[in-house]
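Entry type: protein chain
Record version: 2
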Amino acid sequence: METRIRRAGILFALPWIIGLLAFYAYPLFSSMYYSLTNYNVISPSQWIGFENYITLFNDDLFWKGLKNTLAYALMQVPLAIMFGVTLAMLLNLPVFGQGFLRTVFFLPSLLPVIATTILWQWLLNPQFGLVNAFLEKIGITGPGWLGDTTWSKPSLVIMTLWVLGNSILIYLAGLQDISKDYYEAADIDGANWLQKTFHITIPLLTPVIFFNMIMGVIHALQEFTLPYALTYGTGNPAESLLFYSMYLYNNAFLYMKMGYASAMAWILFVVVMLITVVLLKSSGKWVFYQGDD
């Protein structure tokens, strides 16, 4: 009887197991192998050992792509957390039209990335864009935005801050999970809203902040669609928007250097893992859970 149940369980799990092996395990180990070969998809792969990795560390575009990606992540992730938490706290207030306001802030995350890109290219156009036109009305000369190497990455960050709907939704869930007993006790002690925010809300929201931080870092380090659509894969101006994943894509599908691209993918995996481990190790010092002593 137990053998029959075990066989039935394996049979029901078989489609998932096959999918895992075919679409995850096989590509994973294949990329590991190809990273040690000279492979252009068309011809058979040639074993070259760690030559791809050695070449990468001497590749200026590799370092530029990595530098651009890390700089973007350092700007985007903290700002996304700050704006996401602030908006979620405002949308959690019991005001008239709360559901409508939540819908309005969530809708941008449903828009296609290409459509969003075209919209922001128009808004941030340095000559006739609405943003610079507004700045001019208040006596400020607008920057070149996407055409300026200094402002190109901040422009990209601004675009991503417009689509925080998913993270706001998670923050809202975290806010509603905080017990009202904490606030009632604080009211009895005479705490004001600022004290309650920094001593109750934010500390008890840190598990959700930590989750969004991890996901945000992983997403930022793999940012591809937005900069690729903005620059048509060139990374201009002056390669200031040449992100790591874009250079990886170009090597794999434009230059047909699949082995080289596989090596880049594994380096990115190691970087993401190292940052994730550091964040996990540090979480014990600043992440608090309800019920902790």
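Comment: The mean pLDDT is 93.
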